[in-house]
Amino acid sequence: MPADLRDAFDAYERAIIANDLDALDAFFAPGPDTLRGDAAGLLVGHDAISGFRSLRGGVPPRRIAEIHYRPLATANEGESSDGDIALLMSVSQFVGGGRGLQTQVWERVEGQWLITAAHVTPRTPALDRTIWRSVGDPFLQGAWEGPLEGLTVAVKDLFAIAGFRIGAGNPTFLEEARPEKATAPAVADLLRAGASLRGIARTDEFAYSIAGDNVHYGTPPNGAVVGALPGGSSGGPASAVALGHADIGLATDTAGSIRVPASYQGLWGLRTTHDLVPRQGMLPLAQSFDTIGWLTRDGETLQRVADWCLSYDGSASTENVYGASGDDLPWRFLVPDEILDCADAATREAFSKLLAAFAASDDPPSFRAVHTGDLDATFAAFRTVQGAEAWRNDGDWLRAHPGAVGPAVAERFRVAAQITAADERAARAELDPLAAHLAELVDGAVLIFPTVPGPAPQRTADVHAVRAATLRMTAPAAVAGLPAVSVPLLTVDGAPVGVCLVSRAGTDIALVRLARRLAALVASGSRS
Amino acid sequence: MPADLRDAFDAYERAIIANDLDALDAFFAPGPDTLRGDAAGLLVGHDAISGFRSLRGGVPPRRIAEIHYRPLATANEGESSDGDIALLMSVSQFVGGGRGLQTQVWERVEGQWLITAAHVTPRTPALDRTIWRSVGDPFLQGAWEGPLEGLTVAVKDLFAIAGFRIGAGNPTFLEEARPEKATAPAVADLLRAGASLRGIARTDEFAYSIAGDNVHYGTPPNGAVVGALPGGSSGGPASAVALGHADIGLATDTAGSIRVPASYQGLWGLRTTHDLVPRQGMLPLAQSFDTIGWLTRDGETLQRVADWCLSYDGSASTENVYGASGDDLPWRFLVPDEILDCADAATREAFSKLLAAFAASDDPPSFRAVHTGDLDATFAAFRTVQGAEAWRNDGDWLRAHPGAVGPAVAERFRVAAQITAADERAARAELDPLAAHLAELVDGAVLIFPTVPGPAPQRTADVHAVRAATLRMTAPAAVAGLPAVSVPLLTVDGAPVGVCLVSRAGTDIALVRLARRLAALVASGSRS
Q1: Of A493, B37, B64, B366, which sees the most CB atoms within 10 A?
Q2: What is the mean pLDDT of chain A?
Q3: Are A292 and A303 in contact (CB under 8 A)?
Q4: Crossing angle, helix A375-400 and helix A421-441, to 10 degrees?
Q5: Contact B121 A91 (CB under 8 A)
Q6: CATH 3.10.450.50 fits domain A3-121
Q7: Can B233 be counted among the known catalytic residues?
């Protein structure tokens, strides 16, 4: 190996260990063609690679145990040595155990060796702690047969599992919790149907966020978009399902916590009718809006889960659901103007193309624009009621544990703590007309709109404005207590965006059927 | 991208999905320079790559989501196109969720595109099921302070943890087991000292093997030697420690189950004096020889663990150990001829160089050769007693579950079932003199010899002869109930081999100190 290449390799390795971002940036060839990939995905272009590094933090201490040099191209004789290209594959041995593998293509440019492509395998962790608190194969075996036999479940860390504590995304809360005596019905129903638990998946702290980040355990990887937020608060279960670690995410949705990660990661996500799935053994955020639901990679699996969990023999909700879900929902859709206006231009355009494709299909549904009224006012009132309930649930604990939660969630609780009983009463009164209006709209039709404003933001983005727009889109179904499913039907800038369908209370099973009918229409359209 | 390169890439991808080994072999350039790496390590040379593939099994269904082409070298004009070199980096999307990344260097040789280097990142599983049954961060939190604070433990799946079942490396056994009511003292001692559990790690079925393979869950990766057996029966905890998933492996050693994986993976491993560490809550294999011990990456950690677990306030073994372990062991070593003869020539040579280096050091210990007597006879008697006890422990279960265990372990139990009471009595009588002889030898000196015959065999190797030689080396300490530590002091053909020290009963803590003194001598020798 040329001595100057070895020097460059060694200097790069020192920069890695020191996490010297400027030096690392300088070692990668500038321009849009440079490649760097690992298990989280492939980054294309020098800038994307720099952005990733700013979030990674350092690499644990290691030494190079092996290095293999393969010259690939040699500069022509007599010319400068520019154009030399070499492959280096090296094995690193970590001081704390474990090995890594680095593949680098180096090229001599103006006398300097630069990396034009890299593929990195860091040492494999026992588990991805951003996704999982605990995981097993299985973590808990379900019945050996049943309609969900062979499926695995990522349980959001808000549900009681006998013998385990609830962690709620906060290590202090987890440490003080006691093992649960009984398993939540929502968990037990899945086990009884033959599904097994893969593990306990991370949640944003107390489920009070839609970003999917957690200051204590890190941000789960988005399974669909490299470097993007996973969406929350069910980010752990969503990433687990998107990455194939589990088939079903058992999650909760208060203000969008199932629908947002479903949209961000190209999954199916169902928020059930309020009060339909019993919430015993589930740590509450805001009882007026809290619901239980599921995330899956496909509509068929979501249907199997909903069919069983909402209708099994012995379920508290059977009668309720079968009354309303036996019949198919109408093939008539309403597009709520004010919700659609919250979406990005690119998302609105993709959505409008989708509606046009539906209209041009063999099985055209009807569409009509409707108004929901002012979403700013609705959202302010929603946030007030949610905050008042959240503070009643968690205020004592937060007061007793100052500094135990991350800054964004702490700020949300700080605001919530100021809400007076009069504020709450006024807010509830303000929400009633919207709930009544939505209930009226879905009596004979189904609302359809993009689930969120657009693709998952990058982890480096400022998400303040996105959060505000998102909650305006997701809160209305919560206010009205209606079932809402997010279906990955849109692609915007190469990333998935969900389409949300909202139907009459108790029609959850029929709603998934309807969503599958729409998805089939998209699939047949793309085939023709 | 040249059309013929794209064709080659697509054909290779089809061969991957079909697991067409011949086609895959043909796509990789022949010769010793071809490279292929993944998280398990880097394979060098076409033959090593072929060998790996024969064991891998297929790749789950996937499609190529992205492909990036970078030409690296171009054949000179006018000549044949031989010499063209291209880099392809591609992202695969798995049907069952998750993404993978492939980097390939392709070269046109005699008109054919061949892969000369490849780096593969398959989709990341939730956990490595060959190493772990369940894992968490933490799996179970220990005391928040104490002498082992911050260390993580991989618990071999033979120990009781309150609320969990013991699996013993067999899925049928696990399924029928009931959750344990109490935690084994050996586990509780670690928790009480501030260590946390990382998870429950795999064992060979009923711990009745030293290979480290398990037909149900697969073979854990050897953390030191690519493609080699991990050693067993504590292969799960050993791999977990070697890979940095955990700091301490809590394991058992009946006939070598701690020392063998320690040697194979370059770890420190202590088999404690028989009956020193209480075995409550540990599933027995053969009570006359069963012991509890630990695996670590370094001597300091092993010392911390032994110091605490063998002497903490309230330990059943405190008095016993402090009596015998307070003083340092003599700096006098005995090399047992018959045990050394079981080692490979290369290992014997490395061992003899090590002794020479010790002798030439500033702190030379004394060495003397001794005889243990015929190991064939010893081992036959050992196997008889072990088999008789194993059958008493597990025979009822095995009879009730025909076909539930893998063939190698089933065969071992089948032989064990034939052992008569008279056989057992005779065997015990035969072992007594060896035990007495060894006890005499270690009264005033310490036995030293290579832990096992040589480096970990490759997973593709026939291990029959190795197994026989290994057990002849590991059984004597078990027969005499003496403490034995394996220290990674030898390197043979680039792979680690342990040096085993055996000392007087109850001197376990002092034995680890002695081992560290020897290791320090090696370290100072390599520095000078």
Answers
A1: B37
A2: 94
A3: no
A4: 130
A5: no
A6: yes
A7: yes
Which tens digits make up the pLDDT trace of A449-461? 999 999 999 998 9
What single-letter DSSP state applies at residue B248?
Answer: E
Residue A320: is its pLDDT beyond 80?
Answer: no
Work out the angle at residue A466's Cα, subtended by the Cα atoms of residues A463 and A467, and round it to the nearest 5 degrees. 80
A72–B72 C-beta distance less than 8 A:
yes
DSSP class of B257: T
pLDDT at A430: 97
- Calculate how close chain B gets to A262, using CA atoms only, in Å: 14
**Which residue is catalytic, options A196, A209, A257, A315?**
A257
Q: Which among B92, B196, B209, B233 is annotated as catalytic?
A: B233
pLDDT (0 to 100) of residue B77:
56
Sequential DSSP letters for A346-413: HHHHHHHHHHHHHHTSSSPPEEEEE----HHHHHHHHHHHHHHHHHHHHHHHHHHSTT-S-HHHHHHH
The 10 Å Cβ neighbour count of residue B282 is: 23
Q: Give the minimum alpha-carbon distance from B404 to chain A in angstroms, rounded to a whole number.
A: 16
Tokens 């009509």 appear where?
Answer: A368
Q: Which residues of B touch A94 (CB under 8 A)?
A: 244
**B132-527: what fold?**
Amidase signature (AS) enzymes (3.90.1300)
Q: Which of B92, B196, B234, B257 is catalytic?
A: B257
Within 10 Å of residue B53's Cβ, how many Cβ atoms? Answer: 17
Residue A302: pLDDT over 80: yes
- Using a CB-CB cut-off of 8 Å, the residues of chain B touching A179 are 163
Q: Give A390: exposed, middle or buried? Use CB within 10 Å, 0-12, 13-18, 19+.
A: buried
Disruptive mutation site among B109, B137, B164, B239 for chain A (greatest number of A CBs within 10 Å): B137
Point out which residues pair with A335 in neighbouring strands.
A369
| Pick from A101, A136, A241: CB nearest B135 | A136
Six token digits for residue A520: 């089939």
Q: Does A101 sit within 8 Å of B41, measured CB to CB? A: yes
Output Rg (C-alpha) for chain A, integer angstroms.
25
CB-CB neighbours of A1 under 10 Å: 14
Residue B313 has pLDDT above 80, yes or no: no
Burial class of B14 by CB neighbour count within 10 A (0 to 12, 13 to 18, 19+): exposed
Cβ neighbours of residue A127 under 8 Å, at least 6 residues apart?
A134, A135, B126, B127, B135, B136, B137
Mean pLDDT across chain B = 94
Q: Are A413 and A390 in contact (CB under 8 A)?
A: yes
> For the domain bounded by A132-374+428-527, which CATH number is listed?
3.90.1300.10
Say what the pLDDT of residue A199 is. 98
What's the whole-number mean pLDDT along residues B197-224? 96
Q: Which residues of B touch A91 (CB under 8 A)?
A: 37, 41-42
Which residue, A306, A174, A98, is CA-closest to B297? A98
Given a contact cutoff of 8 angstroms between Cβ atoms, the answer to whether A116 and A33 are in contact is: yes
Strands, DSSP E only, in B202-262? 248-253
The pLDDT score that the predictor gives to residue A473 is 98
Count Cβ–Cβ pairs < 8 Å, chain A vs chain B.
Answer: 198
- In angstroms, the CA B311 to CA A499 distance is 63
Give A190 to chain B, closest Cα distance, Å.
18
Query: CB B177: neighbour CB atoms within 10 A?
Result: 15
- Reported as a single tens digit per residue, the pLDDT across A111-159 is 999 999 999 999 999 999 999 999 999 999 999 899 999 999 999 999 9
Q: How do B35-38 and B112-121 pair as beta strands?
A: parallel
Of the CA atoms within 13 Å of residue B163, those in its CB half-sphere come to 14
Active site residue B209: no
Q: Where are the domains of chain B?
A: 3-121, 132-527
For tokens 């190493």, what's the residue? B131
Check residue B385 and give its pLDDT: 98
